[in-house]
Specification:
One of its GO terms (molecular function) is hydrolase activity, acting on carbon-nitrogen (but not peptide) bonds. The protein has nine helices and twelve strands. It is an alpha/beta fold. It has a single domain, classed as Alpha-Beta Barrel (TIM Barrel).
């Protein structure tokens, strides 16, 4: 009975009302048919961003854009999680019950024997992305080392789940042009940073003006062993979103749908331990 009551409370916290209509956190239900039709596959026409024939390195894939915000008219933000050390089954329950389209960036050396947990998380709607093999700070490392970290995790995730992620988050948010080159050569189409972070004390804005706005990418600080759990931090963030008339969107769909509009402004390198 307590479990049913908690789920009911959480569901109430994540429902916003716009012009009198209840809104689900599920992006397709929330945006409606017209908004869903705006999500298009990434254009691959000649000369378009992301096209092998477009601007980039001669005969090779163009460098991926670096994003911490996605231009959109939809009142959504994007929830992202790093590393994979915190494996609370209650968080899986939260994602399943609320149908949260979260993106999880995994580091192989951190996940260790916990890949089964992330298989369950993926089965309830989470998307698994790349966060390197060993969580090394990449900026300044030679190309071979950076490529090994990124491509190595691509291979690990392919072996475990049969997928090759298109999104990559560099550890600590630090990167250089070599990182982008290695990421492109590993099949990455966007390097994802964050504009806001949710920690034990609430939301912080390391770069830019405070305040969430539609299209912001939010990182939930991982592994706070002495603070609120991942489920509790996510629930607290969902309360904030409800207060501000925002809901949760699926990052991968919005990045693909916006195609060439992403990456016009590259956010600064930032560090988050």
């Amino acid at each position: 009975m307590r479990t049913r009551g908690l789920i009911a409370v959480l569901l109430a916290l994540t429902v916003t009302t716009v012009t009198g209509c209840a809104q689900s956190v599920d992006p397709i239900e929330r945006l409606g048919k017209k908004a869903a039709q705006r999500v298009r596959p990434l254009s691959r026409g000649p000369g378009s961003p992301g096209s092998p024939a477009g601007p980039g390195r001669s005969g090779q894939e163009p460098l991926p854009p670096v994003v911490d915000h996605v231009p959109t008219h939809d009142k959504v933000v994007f929830l992202t999680y790093d590393d994979g050390a915190e494996r609370d089954p209650r968080f899986v329950d939260l994602v399943r019950e609320l149908r949260l389209p979260v993106s999880v960036f995994l580091t192989d050396s951190v996940v260790g024997p916990g890949y089964g947990h992330f298989a369950r998380l993926r089965s309830v709607g989470a998307t698994l992305e790349n966060h390197t093999l060993d969580h090394a700070a990449l900026r300044g490392l030679p190309y071979a080392g950076q490529r090994a970290e990124i491509c190595g995790q691509q291979e690990k995730l392919h072996a475990r789940f049969g997928l090759r992620p298109r999104l990559f988050r560099p550890p600590y948010g630090t990167y250089d042009t070599t990182t982008l080159r290695a990421a492109a050569d590993c099949g990455i189409t966007a390097v994802v940073l964050w504009r806001a972070a949710m920690g034990p004390a609430g939301l912080t804005y390391p770069h830019g003006a405070p305040g969430l706005r539609p299209g912001d990418i939010v990182a939930l600080d991982p592994d706070e062993s002495t603070g609120p759990s991942l489920r509790e931090r996510t629930t607290a963030l969902l309360r904030v979103l409800r207060e501000r008339g925002l809901t949760v969107g699926k990052l991968e769909d919005h990045l693909e749908g916006l195609g060439g509009r992403i990456g016009a402004e590259k956010p600064p390198t930032r560090r988050r331990d």
